[in-house]
Amino acid sequence: METAKRLTFALAGNANVGKSVIFNQLTGLNQVIGNWPGKTVERAEGLLHFKGQTVNIIDLPGIYSLSTFSMEEVVTRDYIALERPDVIIDVVDASALERNLYLTIQLLELGSPMVLALNQMDFAAKKGIEIDVEKLSQLLGMPVVPTVATTGKGIEKLLSEAVDVAEHKAVAPSGIRFGKEIEGLLEKLEAVLLNNVPEICRKYPARWLAIKLFERDDDITKKILAEAAGGEILGLADMLVKEVEQEHGEPSMVVIASERYGIASRIAKEVTRIVSPPKVALEEKMSAITAHRILGYPILALVMAAMFAVIFIGGNALSGFLEGSFEDSIIPAVNGALSGVLSPLFVDIIGGGLIAGIVAGISVALPYIVPFYVLLSILEDSGYLPRAAFLMDNLMHKIGLHGKAFIPLLLGYGCSVPACIGCRILETDRERFLAGFVVVLIPCAARTVIILGLVGQYVGLPAALALYAFDLALVFALGRIAFKALPGEPVGLVMEMPPYKRPSVKNVLMKTWARTREFTYVALPWMVGGSIILVLLKQSGSDVALAHVMAPLIGGWLGLPALAGIPLIFGVFRKELALILLAELIDLAKLSSVQMIVFTMVTMIYVPCVATIATMRREFGWRRAVAVTIIDILLALLLGGLAFHILSILF
Amino acid sequence: MSVEEKISELLELIRTTELNRKEIKKEEIAAELKYPLLETEKIIDVATTEGLIQHNDGVFRLTDKGYMAVQHHRESYIHERFTHQPAFLGRLSRVIDGGIKDWQGHWRRRHSFDEESLNEFYKGIQGLEGHVEDTLPLANLDQGEHGHIVLAFGGRGLVRRLTEMGLTPGTEVTLTRKAPFHGPVEVKVRDISLALGYGVASKVLVKRVKEAD
Prior knowledge:
- The complex is a heterodimer of chains A (651) and B (213).
- By secondary structure, chain A is α/β, with parallel strands linked by helices.
- Chain A has helices at 19-27, 71-83, 97-109, 121-126, 133-140, 155-167, 180-196, 198-203, 206-215, 218-225, 230-248, 252-271, 281-290, 296-339, 344-382, 384-397, 406-411, 416-422, 429-439, 445-459, 461-485, 505-540, 542-557, 565-570, 577-585, 593-605, 610-620, 622-650; strands spanning 6-13, 31-35, 42-50, 53-59, 87-93, 114-119, 129-131, 144-146, 272-274, 494-496.
- In chain A, the strands form 2 sheets. A 7-stranded mixed beta sheet of chain A has the order 2-3-4-1-5-6-8, with helices on both faces. In chain A, strands 7-9 form a two-stranded antiparallel ribbon.
- In chain A, helix 18 (416-422) packs antiparallel against helix 19.
- Chain A starts with 5 loop residues before the first strand and ends with a helix.
- In chain B, a hairpin with a 2-residue loop joins strand 1 and strand 2.
- The two termini of chain B are 31 Å apart.
- Chain B is globular, with a radius of gyration of 19 Å.
- Chain B has helices at 3-19, 26-33, 37-49, 64-83, 88-97, 103-111, 115-126, 156-164, 198-202, and strands at residues 53-56, 59-62, 135-137, 146-152, 172-178, 185-189, 192-196, 204-209.
- With 213 residues, chain B is an alpha+beta fold.
- Strand 10 (494-496) of chain A pairs antiparallel with strand 7 (192-196) of chain B.
């Protein structure tokens, strides 16, 4: 008798089909999120209990195909082929069946047991589409369950079907076949593979390998070439493939994609019926206005302005309130309680280091980062962000990126850590790094605190806004230089524009949590650690010594009081702390406007904080992280000094 | 129309019949190209003496030279229309050296084609049915116009992505929106809206579909 049998289900599907909503429905908060080993691709895993069984659910990345063009595709393919989950739940968008079935057909080629989740049935109904579920199931040879992920409809049924498939493992080989000519060729290749490289055929299905050889898939070609008989097999494959290419006048990859789409389109036509005229006039109208070639831009500016206004005004008030209440009540209370028990040094470490670090994290995260990401997730889920990316594509091309990079750029206004991770939506390594280089220069919430708290407060709002504008110009200029300096070709924009939808509250909250989590787990520990180091430095008096060493630079070149060097150093750990420290060391009212601007400018540009450096290292590697850090320090010093000398002449 | 242009029309027609595994006779050529029979014969004669085509039993085939001629005609047309406006220096050097001679080298150097994408590009233009002059880049369709995909070219990764997003040859696309200043375009294909950068949309050749009304 087996009792503790654990099943594994993998969710696969295109992007924007509600796959992660289904994942959230299945697992709730019972999720572990990390990276695929050795890859910067997110891996989400969760557990659920169903009818006495424990089921492990893996959310595979959203992809359009199983080639090896992107890391996401490689991860998905290796996972399915090598780890063989018990069932693959393929989530498809019922309102765009044809395009979605393209991936389904490729998953079928891999020969795993599958269940189809026919999602967004509500939206399909709105478009006047009716789907014959029975027939679709027959044609594909797998159970098909209509679902509406946002309301949870059909999820229970989906699970029980998946468990059923897992228990009866008998997978009817799919009846889906390509044209005669290609099937003939595949059969030949399959036989050759089975005879000559049986080991690889035990790992991957032979028919699938044959298809990959036909497509001239780099990864599989390499694997086969590594075998003794590899050269011969590839020679034969090449000859056969060339014949077909000659006939069709198309590269084999296009030939097979056309075949797959042919099948997908045939199935989609057979099972869908347009029952009523589509009722999506409003959606179309919103699309037409928000992506309009002229109107779109003022709308975009308005949306952004409104969002930032809410964050800055609301955040500033909330942040002040939080800091005030912490400083007035909690910290003194903790200090009081501890001072009886511990030595003063330890009290300072715990009160001034640990707790102050956590408080600082909370007073940046809660008022600024959380609301910002809530609003951004609403914009994203409703479908507005892709329109914004569409409008910004042209401008982003000037810095060698494309429209999609606008999204991590926006994320940067919250916290640089999720922004760096957000660069993963870009296609190539070069673009991700280019975007990463640029996003760390975007003033994050902590830097905003300084800009508003110092320049905004003492010099005036126009000066603060001018600093923002200067930063944007700098981002643009540096992006352009980096784009010209980095070797490689820019990649063009190819992006799906999902229809406008009402965002689901649950999903927005989950997304906000996912992004804030990156801040909490990556940035916060650094902030706390930094605070403790700070206390130690202060206690040992080395901070003043450091300030003296740096005096010529800080005083001579930047024109700041020598003590201002201390907050600049500690800003590396916690940017927003620079301001608090500065206020502790120097009477802010005695600083001149120019000094405030210079100080703020330097903090804005120089080293992204330690947490960001650590994230950059993870995403782009050590060398690039160090390079960006050094460039940013030098740049901040150069521009800060120039600003001091120029502004001193002017004012 | 010059004789050269007529010859390339003829070569493209023969290439198309070859692709369809059909055989074409003199009279059919005349009917297809809408020339009088006499003139057609003259063009065929010139093409034959230049070694571009050969015929046995009245059936016409391209020679290797003719095959290359079709390729050059198509790549230079695509190049002139779609890929880049040569900058002043480029134009100057072209005046000096009399145009591009080493096409493969040019695609590699100026357009960053690697070996594989170049091969696929050539396969693609060889497989093009009909006349290359009937095609235009997707980016050049007007808002609301429809087209049939003929071929996508450029880097191998790009072609792969476009193909996988459903832009396979023969598929109907509708251009729904254009951003200003050579910005991206939005197209509808297989019930999906896709945003394509201007550069990307310039590398997708389509045949315009005339509205039936």
